Amino acid sequence: MPDLFNLQFVTVVGKGGVGKTTVSAALALAAARRGKRVLIAMCNAKERVSQLLEVPPIGAINQTVLPGIDAVNMNPKEALEEYGMMVLKVRALYRAIFENRLVAAFLRGTPGIEAWSMLGKAQFHARELTPDGRKRYDMVILDSPATGHGLEMLRVPRVLLDVAPPGLLRREAEKAWELFGDPARAGALIVTLPEDMPVSESIELNAALRDELGLPVAGLVVNGLLPRLFDASEGEIVTAAARAAAPDNPAYSLLVAGRRRTLRERVQADALARVQQELPLPRVELPLLVTPELARKELSQLADCF
Q1: Could you tell me which residues are beta bridge partners of residue 9?
Q2: DSSP H or E segment with residue 40
Q3: Which of 34, 153, 254, 278 is at 20 to 30 A from 210, Cα to Cα?
Q4: Checking phi first, is residue 48 left (phi over 0); if not, alpha (psi -120 to 50) or beta?
Q5: How many alpha carbons lie under 13 Å from residue 215 in its C-beta half-sphere?
Q6: How far apart are the first and last CA of the chain?
Q7: What is the pTM of this model?
Q8: Does position 111 have pLDDT exceeding 70, yes or no?
Q9: How many whole angstroms separate alpha carbon 12 and alpha carbon 140?
Q10: Phi/psi at 181 (nearest 5 deg)?
Q11: What is the reported pLDDT for 79?
């Protein structure tokens, strides 16, 4: 998926539990290996990136965690203050605007303002320049909330374009929407598992991103793939033998395990066939790593797949 590494803003989206955070961290490692300066932006999450990368805990302020990789776990209050300061540059001006009673009341009543405080900060970093005019980050990876909340977050700039009066907030929403809609600069990366329900939700998510929001989808990651042990005929033999075996048969436990593996491989094959037919996107397949703890060594193996 080489084009992915040319994007400035990648939104990692998918059903809860499919491995979005793992994919975000692996993608960051892969991008850093290619000489990119990367920011992993989490959204008020139960922070796991530090465990995956074996680095100190990650807080609400951007911090360098590995060469080429910064990370932040944004929360709405601190993200809004930092984002306001980045846009306005002068703290006195920030206080005059954002700490004004009327402005504060307006912000509290603006739909999606908490989501925007985090999304706005993340997208600003994708456009941010250093004092010498260079990009601060080559790629920002947004580890988005689960499907429903993730879609709501991505809708926020368009909502702000509808409800915000002309001014700073509207201008920033326009810049964000322009960025998110440009396939040369941004794209969603859908993460799924090779199972029926996650694949169904990914198909719906792809349709919502493309048809409802008009946003580019950069690709699909199928996470947790098992290597195939049995072909169709072998699976039938193992299943039949397991059904026929008595519990006191010395090979009973092995045959039952083989039957379960056959069933799981069949579910995986059916899911991949649906993906092939209904999600014709650039695809990365990540293996299921059987390990007591997923950490940097294992993450590096996943990064090799991009």
Answers
A1: 140, 186
A2: strand 38-43
A3: 34
A4: alpha
A5: 30
A6: 6
A7: 0.86
A8: no
A9: 10
A10: -90, 0
A11: 65
**Could you give all domains of the chain from N- to C-terminal order, each with its CATH number?**
2-228+280-303 (3.40.50.300)
**What amino acid is encoded at 253 in this protein?**
S
Rounded CA-CA distance 28/34 in Å is 10
SS3 293: coil
The answer to whether the CB of 18 falls within 8 A of the CB of 221 is no
Alpha carbons within 13 angstroms on the beta-carbon side of residue 289 total 18
Question: Quick check: 22 and 52 in contact, CB under 8 A?
Answer: yes
Kindly report, residue by residue over 176-234, the tens digit of the pLDDT: 999 999 999 999 999 999 999 999 999 999 999 999 999 999 999 999 999 887 777 77
Backbone angles phi, psi at 9, to 5 degrees: -140, 120
Short-list 60, 167, 151, CA closest to 110: 167
Report the distance separating Cα 259 and Cα 234, nearest Å: 10
Look at residue 198 and give its three-state secondary structure.
helix
Tens of pLDDT, residues 42-65: 998 889 999 999 999 999 999 999
Nearest to 128 by CA among 77, 94, 83: 83
pLDDT of 160 reads: 79
Residues 240-294 pLDDT 10s? 777 877 788 887 788 778 788 888 888 999 999 999 999 999 999 999 998 888 9
pLDDT (tens digit per residue) in 138-174: 999 999 988 678 888 898 888 878 877 777 778 888 9
Report residue 77 as tokens.
Answer: 């209050």
- Amino acid identity for residue 243 in this structure: R
Measured distance CA(263)–CA(275) in Å, rounded: 19
